[in-house]
Amino acid sequence: MKRLLLFIIGLAGALCPAFAQRAERTYVTTDRDWYAAGETVYLSAFCVDVSESVRLSEVSAVAYVELTSADGMALGGKVALLNGRGAGSLVLPRTLPTGNYRLSAYTTLSGREGNYDPRTGSRIISVYNTLSPARVTDAVEIGMAPLSTPVEQAGALQVQKLRDGRIGLSSPVPATLSVSVYRNEPFPSYGRGSLAQALSVPAGARTREVVPEYDGEILTLRLTGADGQPLTGQQALEVFVSRPGHLEDIYAAKLQADGRARFYTTNFFGDGEMVVSLGKTAPAFKVEVESPYRQLEPGDIPALVLDPSCSEALTRLGARMQVTSAFEADTLYQRLPARQIAFLSDKSKRYNLDDYTRFATLREVFVEYLSDIRARGREEELELQVRAFKREGAGSIFWEDPSLILVDGVPVFNHSLVYNLDPALVKSVEVYPYFCTFGHLMYSGVANFITYKGDLGGIRFGDNVRIIDFSGAAYPVAFVTPSDDPRYPSQRETLLWQPIVELRAGEELVLPALQAEEGMVLVAEGLTENGEPILVVKEL
């Protein structure tokens, strides 16, 4: 064990200098350049290391995206990265004013370079609010729309139309791409940006120290007392964060002297509630999530010109937005792999309570058949313990150290709350009869009580628990809109979105046959194995 530990320390020491020299550039592509307020912007992220040669970076595991206008930052989002590639989305609020917006992306690691501006190579997207007259301040005009910014094609990607109407894409060298096909509407493009521009800034000098997010977002919480001052003198407290129904999203950290707690996560996915707990006995507190966004200045964003000749296209855009939003549940998506690391293995014993006689209290459930968990102590100091193992012919053996008790994946340190749960609300109990570690903590066995509704069984927590809203990385998705069935006409503006396409040398990617009365535009962007940018825009 000692030799293994020394080997790990030596390996970390050898790798740290290499990581210290990394310089990342992040670029995002979108499914198109124009949207109605209320639509979803689909993203594909390229995180590239430019320290020595141009290649995808394997360092950062999350990128941050900002949508800004002359009025400031309008929206932020997170994209989980795996080996330099990722996908996600931004949902535009229906109240978002009409105007042009700058879409920029960056990683925490790039923040240590003083000469790097994340807006380099960023793209301009146009948002049309068809439900409100709200506009970005002094950034919308009425007149003849300008011609779209010319697109400089790049790379050796070959696009050809096949006999059956499908489209084939091929590359002479291995490449990673994002591919989009959307309706050819008459809205102008004000600045697509490009991966070549984003990579044009060389690695710069380090002006400040940052902690790279190797595994995922580093979540920082600021805890204050009832008086609004940071919790101090409570440094021995353990702070826990978890998300109901997500067993992989449990993390622990020590409260620092400044009242902050930092959690090294493997990325949260989706939006929802987060439970913050300070253990069984702790003072009342308030919690604030520190924003990871830099609040970039918008820079020079061209004014959006509303052309009366585009009125019919705007009417179609608004109608399709409303129809698509109303029937979004009927849309089929392909969810792409997302990195999630659970701190528990799949070696558990599961009790489905419907397979047994139902009792009025959990006390009776423990006695009658849930023999892998026992209760010890008085009601106000009750402790639930998980059985370690059981030998043939031997008595029951339970862990002497505390066990971790969860309800819907949320730690509950007052075990009396679990013991008094209504068993009619509990669907099953999963028991993990082995040592479990997460963060710097170790527990002797874990039991997870899963309710039917995933609502924690109506547990009323004390002052040591707070529930807050939290936005994680968007789930990466891909989709294609079928157009061969006239009974179900598509109302999507984007007909095909493949955010992560890996092409081998000489391999052909065949896209399905698509149709649209307005015509279609295909856009493929990416990077070859040799670090050469690819950009192809073709009308179909």
Structure notes:
This protein has 540 residues and is mostly beta strands. The protein has helices at 2-20, 195-198, 311-326, 362-368, 415-419, and strands at 24-30, 34-36, 40-49, 55-56, 62-69, 72-80, 85-91, 99-106, 123-128, 140-142, 158-161, 167-170, 175-183, 218-224, 238-243, 246-254, 260-264, 271-277, 286-289, 304-306, 334-335, 349-352, 373-376, 383-389, 397-398, 404-407, 410-411, 426-438, 441-451, 465-471, 477-480, 494-503, 508-511, 520-528, 533-539. A hairpin with a 5-residue loop joins strand 3 and strand 4 (55-56). The termini are far apart.
How do you describe this structure in short?
By secondary structure, this protein is mostly beta strands.
Spell out the blueprint of helices and strands.
Layout (H helix, E strand, L loop, with lengths): L1 H19 L3 E7 L3 E3 L3 E10 L5 E2 L5 E8 L2 E9 L4 E7 L7 E8 L16 E6 L11 E3 L15 E4 L5 E4 L4 E9 L11 H4 L19 E7 L13 E6 L2 E9 L5 E5 L6 E7 L8 E4 L14 E3 L4 H16 L7 E2 L13 E4 L9 H7 L4 E4 L6 E7 L7 E2 L5 E4 L2 E2 L3 H5 L6 E13 L2 E11 L13 E7 L5 E4 L13 E10 L4 E4 L8 E9 L4 E7 L1
Parallel strand pairs: 2-9, 10-20, 26-29
Antiparallel strand pairs: 1-3, 3-4, 3-7, 5-6, 5-8, 8-9, 11-12, 12-33, 13-32, 13-34, 14-17, 14-19, 15-16, 15-18, 18-30, 21-31, 22-28, 23-24, 24-25, 26-27, 28-29, 31-32, 34-35
